[in-house]
Structures are given as structure tokens and as C-alpha cells.
Amino acid sequence: MWNNRGLIFDLGSPELSSNMLAYAQGPQALLLADRTRVFFSTRKLDIHGKYLSGVRYVDFSPDFSELLDVSKQEAVTPGALGSFDEHGIFPLNVVKIGDTVRGYSSGWSRRVSVDITMSIGILSSGDNGKSFERWGSGPAIGPSPEEPFLVGDPFVYFDGKRFHLWYIYGTKWTRDPTGRPERTYRIGHRKSNDGLDWDSSKITHGLVAALSPSEAQAMPSVLALNGNAYMVFCYRDTFGFREGGPAAYRLGIAVSEDLENWTRKSEFCEWRTNDWDSQMMCYPNIHQRDGMIYLLYNGNTFGQQGFGLAEISQADFINSYG
Fold first, then answer.
1. Strand 100-110 and strand 67-70: pairing?
2. What is the separation of C-alpha 227 from the centre of its chain, rounded to a whole number of angstroms?
3. Strand, helix or coil at 303?
4. What pLDDT, on the 0 to 100 scale, is given for residue 270?
5. Residue bearing the bigger pLDDT, 322 or 261
6. Where do the domains of the chain lie, and which CATH numbers do they carry?
7. Nearest Cα residue to 171 out of 146, 191, 190
8. How far is residue 166's CA from residue 255's CA, in Å, rounded to a whole number?
9. What is the rounded distance in angstroms from the CA atom of residue 147 to the CA atom of residue 143?
């Protein structure tokens, strides 16, 4: 019952090709009074020919029928030399708190033996996300004895009493048959009274049951609706996921009554009728507005072409997923 509106932000379109950098990954929605501001990570090459990722945004009308504005510069640039986000941010989750917008970043930096490591940082904006300032040079949550490899992909929700953080944590690195190291990660959960200090004594791991030991889960996004919470995420196999096929990213959904215990539903959506998302669907972000549920996501090659949109009425969504 989903209506797939296709690639709504196409980096190959004539009006964007000269303005944009490569990729538009991990779209994240911020609902403003007259528009929906969508943040995403884009890429540029450094002096060594390696990618750096910064954050930009694009504005749509609330129903995504009109493209209103495209940012001319990065709202967040890569971090300082040697910092946890030295090589960029992907993704940036945004939360409106009073007159400010708080950003929860997945900062990454390169390593030698494996590709990257990731940590979660915090930023703040006083101009609805046009620009951000870091809360410090270091991360709010980084690798630890309980989560030794990486943490990232934050999504934050305030339930009226406390803040909830869903994120990914690395479970292991494994070499594929060619010797290339690949990471496996799952979804975890923490709580906070202020959204700044996260209780490390009550971490919940393995929130969503995996379909196989080699399943990697990413980019949790949570919507509270009608007494339930719905988590949309993407998942893939640890190996062979870049080439498309059954190992590539797909979208999944889980449902909870208490924000802590989750039941994974059957296949979430399988439209994939367009060339741009025929091989993979990844990096989802879900929100509701004016009786509609909107799902932003990336397709083939991890968002190189841009991002797309699917929509469903709130009533049909509840009927479909409980």
C-alpha cells in the first residue's frame, strides 16, 4: 500500500548536477513550520584522492511536492586533524529542542588494518540547521569494552520524560575470501535524562533479532504512533553486499509497545521497480506529517544518485503493521 514516488532528489538532474557534490547519503528529516529540511552526507576528494564526507541539506514543501532550496555550503564539515570525525560525518540525526536543533553525528576516521572506526558526537544549531557548532572535539559515545569496534548511526527520540538513542555497534571484523576486512553491526539502545549524558550501565544490545549470524543492521529510525513504536532499518550480509543481489541492503521493520522490546515483522517493502533502487534499498528515515507517513531512503550504490521517497497514509500504515 506504499506509494513509491521515486528519486525525488536526483543528483544527475540538470538543476543539481552543477551545484552538488558526489552522493546524498542517509537523508534525515527536520520538520519546520513551512517545509521539511532534509540533511544528508555528501562527499568530496581530499588532496590524497580519498573521500571526505560533510553534511548539507535540501528543503522541500511538507508534502515533498516542491523543491524549495538547496544549501550552497556544508552545514557541518569534517573534524579537525586527528579527531574522531576527521574524515567526515555520516549520518547526522537532527532533533528540534526548543529554539535549537541538536545534531547527533556519526563521525568516522580511517584506520590502517580496517577501513574505518566510528563514534557519536553532538552538535547544536541556532538557525534551524543551516550551520552547527560542535559540543566539543571528542565524541559523546565511542568504542568501549562493551562495544569495542565502532558505534554510529544515531537516532534520538524524546518520549516526554527521557531521551532514547538507537544506534549501531560493531560486533566483529572478518576478512572475506579475498582478505578484505568487513564489519558486522547490530542495533543497540541507551537512555538519557538530558540527551547529552547517556547511561552506559543500561545498554541494550541485539534489539532486533537477526535473520542470520552474518546479518549486519544499520540506520535505525523510530516513529511513535497510536501507542506503538515502529523502527525502520536496513540490513545486509557481511559479505558480497556491494554487488547487489540477496546479500545487498534491504529495508526491515520492527514494532514495540515500550521502546525497548522489539518484534521484527515480515518483509517491510519490496517495490524496487526503478533502476535507481533495483539493486539495494538502504539508509531509511521515517516521519509522519498531516496524516501521512513518509519514508526517505537511498538506493543503488549507497546513495550516489541521490535519495527517494515512499509514502503511505497513517491509517494504512497502522493497518499494515499493527
1. unpaired
2. 24
3. helix
4. 63
5. 261
6. 3-321 (2.115.10.20)
7. 146
8. 14
9. 5
Q: How far apart are CA 202 and CA 281, in angstroms?
A: 32
Phi, psi of 123 (to 5 degrees): -130, 165
Residue 7: phi and psi, rounded to 5, are -80, 95
Smallest CA-to-CA distance from 303 within 68, 37, 42 is with 42
The cell for 38 is 532534509
Length of the chain, in residues: 322
Could you tell me the pTM of the whole model? Answer: 0.95
CA distances 121 to 126, 166, 200, Å, are 17, 14, 15
Find out whether 276 and 305 touch, Cβ atoms under 8 Å: yes
**Beta-bridge mates of residue 40:** 56
* DSSP, residue by residue, 201-255: TS-B---S--SSTTEEEEEEEEEEETTEEEEEEEEEESSSGGG-STTS-EEEEEE
Instruction: List the Cα angle 185/11/43 in 5-degree steps.
Output: 50
pLDDT digits 0-9 by tens, 98-111 = 999 999 999 999 99
DSSP category for residue 213? T
Neighbours of 301 (CB within 10 A): 15
The secondary structure of 73-119 as a DSSP string is: S-SB----TTSTTTTBEEEEEEEEETTEEEEEEEEEEE-SSSSEEEE
Q: Which amino acid belongs to residue 121?
A: G
* Confidence band of 16 (pLDDT split at 50, 70, 90): confident
Looking only at the bridges linking them, the beta strands covering 282-289 and 67-70 are unpaired
Contact at 8 Å (CB) between 10 and 19?
no
Burial pattern 113-136, b for ≥16 Cβ within 10 A else e, equals ebeebbbbbbbebeebbeebebbe
DSSP state letter for 243: G
Dig out the grid coordinates for 299 from the structure: 538506493
For residues 250 and 294, what is the distance between their CA atoms, to the nearest angstrom? 17
At 85, list the grid cell. 570525525
pLDDT tens digits, residue range 186-208? Answer: 999 999 999 999 988 889 999 99
Question: Which pLDDT score, from 0 to 100, does residue 19 have?
Answer: 59
Sheet harboring 215-225: ordered strands across?
215-225, 228-237, 250-256, 263-264
